[in-house]
UniProtKB/TrEMBL annotation:
<dbReference type="Pfam" id="PF12796">
    <property type="entry name" value="Ank_2"/>
</dbReference>
<feature type="repeat" description="ANK">
    <location>
        <begin position="147"/>
        <end position="179"/>
    </location>
</feature>
<dbReference type="InterPro" id="IPR036770">
    <property type="entry name" value="Ankyrin_rpt-contain_sf"/>
</dbReference>
<dbReference type="InterPro" id="IPR002110">
    <property type="entry name" value="Ankyrin_rpt"/>
</dbReference>
<keyword id="KW-0040">ANK repeat</keyword>
<protein>
    <submittedName>
        <fullName>Ankyrin repeat-containing protein</fullName>
    </submittedName>
</protein>
Length: 228
């Protein structure tokens, strides 16, 4: 069993070691689903990464490009890995790697699984304003909800003021709240909870929800009163 596992992680290990020759050897002839599916836990990201995601996380464009040259595999599984890679690269913020991944599809990204919206969300979470612009220009739905809310909400929660400005200026609805989310999940409330006062101050003038506006103003005034 241990020997089989070692074989499955060969590609991942080659990526980690920056062993370009080994990566080429393992990918030049065929798409090995077990190699590409192998994942290892990344402590800082609190997530498991496959070989392509690891190359993206390491910022190694050369290895990413080698992986992209792997022959198409069983049921076109390679495509799914690259689409997931686009979402992950949007979070990591390496524009050259993102462009390489997107170029694989020659400008025709399959949005069946809302990859464009997911990538905008990831860019918003990572605070990558230039990458967020790319997906806004690709007509991403600005008010689309994922499992943890919408792009404006995650940008406000994480404190990414430049992304917040971009989303609002691009037409994101500051007041839109999905019924299944409780009230604390509005963008300005998330900014208040996480004490991102620059974002709170910016959003106030755009808020139409009177309850949210009073809440934001009250908390902002409280903080300003404490300042020397």
């Amino acid at each position: 069993m241990r020997e089989n596992q070692n074989r499955e992680q060969e590609l991942y290990d080659a990526v980690v070691k920056l062993d370009v020759d080994a990566v080429k050897e393992l990918t030049s002839d065929t798409f090995n689903l077990k190699h590409w599916s192998f994942k290892e836990w990344h402590e800082l990201l609190c997530d498991s990464l496959n070989p392509l995601e690891k190359a993206i996380q390491m910022g190694n464009l050369n290895i990413v490009e080698i992986l992209l040259q792997t022959p198409v595999g069983y049921q076109n599984s390679k495509k799914e890995f690259i689409l997931d890679g686009i979402v992950f690269a949007s979070f990591c913020g390496n524009k050259k790697i993102l462009e390489a991944l997107m170029n694989y599809f020659e400008g025709k990204i399959d949005n069946t699984y809302n990859i464009i919206e997911s990538s905008l969300y990831s860019a918003s979470e990572g605070g990558n304003v230039e990458i967020a612009k790319i997906f806004i220009e690709m007509k991403a739905q600005l008010n689309s909800f994922g499992e943890s809310g919408k792009p404006l909400m995650i940008a406000a929660e994480k404190g990414h003021i430049d992304v917040v400005r971009l989303l609002v200026e691009s037409g994101a609805n500051v007041d839109k709240i999905e019924p299944r989310y409780d009230l604390d999940d509005s963008a300005v409330r998330l900014a208040v909870i996480n004490e991102h006062w620059d974002i709170v101050e910016y959003l106030i003038s755009f808020i139409k929800n009177s309850t949210d506006k009073r809440y934001a103003k009250r908390n902002l005034a409280r903080i300003k009163d404490k300042l020397p």
